[in-house]
Specification:
Leucine-rich repeat, LRR (right-handed beta-alpha superhelix), 7% helix
C-alpha cells in the first residue's frame, strides 16, 4: 500500500511538471526566446510556462526566419513584442496580455490578427507589410497613439472613433475606398493614406493638431474640408482627380502642398494667389492631361474650329496650338480656326495652356485627331447653264472638279432627281435645281445655291383649223420669216410674213399637237396648240 502511494505521488508530481511544459515546433522561435529570456527554455528546448508567465519587458527578434509563435500567449506580462521581418502567418489568441503596450508584427505573412480588446494599454500597433484582409475591433484600445496598417490588402476598416489619443495613422498601399471616423481622431498629427482607392474623405475640421496629411495617389475628386488648421504644415493631394480647391489661407503654417497630376485648371488655381508665397508653396506641375480631344472627319475646303473649352476669359491666358508636334499658333483665345481645311491640314492637333501668374505650370490637352475627306472646292466649281423656252429645253454643265464623282440635280418644284457621272445635264424641262456632288470615297457636297436656268417666256395660242370660221388659223403681223417646228424640233413649214398659218405642213394637214413658231430666227417665239 505504501509503495502504491509513492508511485501515485511521483505520477502527480510528474503530471504537474508536464502541465507546465510546452513543446515548441519552431527552432528559430526557441532561439528568439532564449536570446530574450534564457530561463524560460529548459534543457530540452521546451517552454516553461510558469517562467513565461513571469517574463517582463520586451520580446524582440527581427529577421530571424520565425514561422510559428505558438507559446507567445503565455508571455502575459510583456509590455513590448517586436517580431518584424519574419515569416509568421498566424498569431495565437493573446487575451491575457493586458500589459502589452507595443506590438510590432510588421513584414510578415499575417492574414489576420488576434483580438486585442483586452490589451487596453496598447499605444502602438505596427502590422504593416503583411497580407491582412481585416483588422480586429479596436474600440477598446483607446490608448493607441500609433496605428501602422499600411501595405496590406484592406478594403474596409472598423469604427475608429474611440481612438481619441491616436497621433499617427498609416493606411497607405491598401484598397480602401473610404476612411471611417478619422474626423473623430482629435489628437491626430500624421495621416498617411496615399496609394489607396479613396473616393472621399470625411471633413477634417476637428483635427486641430494635424501636421502632416498625405492623400495622394487616390481617386479623390475634392479635398476634404480642412477648416482652420493652425498646425498643418504638409499636405499632399497629388495624383487624384481634383477639379476644385479649398481655401488654403486658413492654414497659415503650410510649407509644402502637392497638387500636381490633377485636373485643376488655371481658373481654379487663381484661388491660390490669396496665399503668401503661393508660387513656391503649391506644387502644380507636372499637370494631368486635359481630356478634351476627339477624332474629327472634315470635308475638304470646309471651316474647322478646335476649342479646348478650358479657362476661357481667365486673365493672363495663352494657348499654344501644335500640329504633329510643331507649334502653329499662339493666342489669348482658346480656339484654333482654319477657314479652308485641305487634305494637307489633316493631322494630330493639341494645345498647351499657360498663364502669366503661374509661369512654371502648363496644361496639355489630349489629341484632336483631324482627317479630311476629298471634297469639291466651292470656289473652283463652275456651273454653266443655257436658256430654255417653250421650244428649247435647258442644259447644265458642272466643271472644276476632276475626281470621280456622281452629280445629282433635284428639282426645286417637283423634287424629281436626275444624275450624271460627267456633270453634264441636257433636255432639262424645269428651271431650278439643287446640286449635290457625291465624291467617290469622300464627302457629299451640297452646293449652297440653287442652280437657276434662264427661262424665256413664250406666247401661247390655240387654233382649230376645221373651217368653222372660229380660230381656223393664226395671223403673224410681223414682217420677215416664220418657221414652224413640231415638238421634236422638225421643221413643219416655212412662211413669209405677214401671213397666216392654218395648221398645215408642206405635206398637207397636221395632227393634233404642240408646235412652235420661230419668228425671224428667235426674235419671238409663239407656242401654238393645234386641236381639230
Amino acid at each position: 500500500m505504501k509503495k502504491l502511494l509513492v508511485i501515485l505521488f511521483i505520477f502527480l508530481q510528474t503530471f504537474e511538471v508536464a502541465s507546465q511544459i510546452l513543446n515548441l515546433t519552431d527552432s528559430n522561435f526557441v532561439k528568439c526566446i532564449k536570446a530574450n529570456f534564457p530561463t524560460v527554455i529548459n534543457s530540452k528546448n521546451q517552454l516553461i510556462i510558469s517562467e513565461a508567465e513571469n517574463a517582463k519587458g520586451t520580446l524582440s527578434c527581427s529577421s530571424s526566419n520565425i514561422h510559428n509563435v505558438e507559446g507567445l500567449q503565455y508571455f502575459i506580462k510583456l509590455s513590448t513584442i517586436k517580431l518584424p521581418k519574419n515569416s509568421i502567418s498566424y498569431i495565437p489568441a493573446i487575451p491575457k496580455l493586458v500589459l502589452l503596450q507595443q506590438l510590432d508584427l510588421s513584414d510578415n505573412n499575417l492574414r489576420s490578427l488576434p483580438e486585442l480588446s483586452n490589451s487596453r494599454r496598447l499605444k502602438g500597433i505596427h502590422v504593416q507589410s503583411n497580407e491582412l484582409g481585416t483588422i480586429p475591433d479596436l474600440s477598446k484600445n483607446d490608448s493607441l497613439e500609433v496605428l501602422n496598417i499600411h501595405s496590406n490588402q484592406l478594403d474596409t476598416l472598423p469604427d475608429l472613433s474611440a481612438l481619441v489619443r491616436l497621433k499617427t495613422f498609416s493606411t497607405m498601399y491598401n484598397n480602401l475606398k473610404y476612411l471611417p471616423n478619422v474626423d473623430k481622431l482629435i489628437s491626430l498629427e500624421n495621416l498617411h493614406s496615399w496609394k489607396n482607392q479613396l473616393l472621399e474623405v470625411p471633413p477634417l475640421i476637428a483635427l486641430k493638431k494635424l501636421i502632416y496629411l498625405d492623400l495622394s495617389y487616390n481617386k479623390l475628386t475634392k479635398i476634404p474640408e480642412l477648416g482652420t488648421k493652425p498646425n498643418l504644415e504638409v499636405a499632399y493631394f497629388n495624383d487624384n482627380f481634383l477639379t476644385t480647391l479649398p481655401d488654403f489661407s486658413q492654414c497659415p503654417k503650410l510649407e509644402n502642398v502637392r497638387l500636381y497630376k490633377n485636373l485643376i485648371t488655371f481658373r481654379e488655381a487663381q484661388k491660390l494667389k490669396n496665399v503668401l508665397g503661393f508660387d513656391t508653396l503649391f506644387k502644380l506641375s507636372p499637370t494631368e492631361q486635359l481630356k478634351v480631344g476627339r477624332s474629327l472627319m472634315i470635308n475638304e475646303f470646309s471651316f474647322l474650329k478646335l476649342s479646348t473649352g478650358i479657362d476661357k476669359g481667365v486673365p493672363g491666358m495663352s494657348y499654344e496650338w501644335y500640329k504633329n508636334g510643331s507649334l502653329i499658333k499662339t493666342s489669348s483665345g482658346d480656339s484654333l480656326k482654319i477657314d479652308r481645311f485641305q487634305l494637307a491640314d489633316s493631322g494630330k492637333y493639341m494645345c498647351i495652356l499657360k498663364n502669366a501668374a503661374f509661369p512654371t505650370v502648363s496644361y496639355k490637352t489630349d489629341t484632336f485627331d483631324v482627317h479630311s475627306q476629298s471634297c469639291p472646292d466651292p470656289s473652283a466649281i463652275a456651273i454653266n447653264t443655257t436658256e430654255m423656252n417653250c421650244f428649247i429645253k435647258g442644259s447644265i454643265s458642272i466643271n472644276g472638279y476632276s475626281k470621280k464623282a456622281l452629280y445629282k440635280l433635284t428639282s426645286v418644284n417637283t423634287t424629281r432627281q436626275i444624275t450624271s457621272q460627267s456633270g453634264n445635264f441636257n433636255e432639262l424641262s424645269e428651271n431650278a435645281y439643287k446640286l449635290t456632288i457625291d465624291v467617290e470615297e469622300g464627302c457629299s457636297y451640297n452646293h449652297p445655291k440653287i442652280v437657276q436656268l434662264d427661262q424665256k417666256e413664250c406666247e401661247e395660242v390655240l387654233i382649230s383649223p376645221n373651217n368653222d370660221g372660229a380660230a381656223d388659223s393664226y395671223y403673224f403681223p410681223e414682217t420677215g420669216t416664220v418657221i414652224i417646228y413640231d415638238k421634236r424640233g422638225n421643221v413643219v413649214k416655212t412662211l413669209t410674213i405677214p401671213g397666216s398659218w392654218d395648221g398645215s405642213s408642206d405635206k398637207g394637214k397636221t395632227f393634233n399637237g404642240f408646235f412652235v413658231a420661230d419668228i425671224n430666227n428667235g426674235t419671238k417665239l409663239i407656242g401654238i396648240t393645234v386641236l381639230y
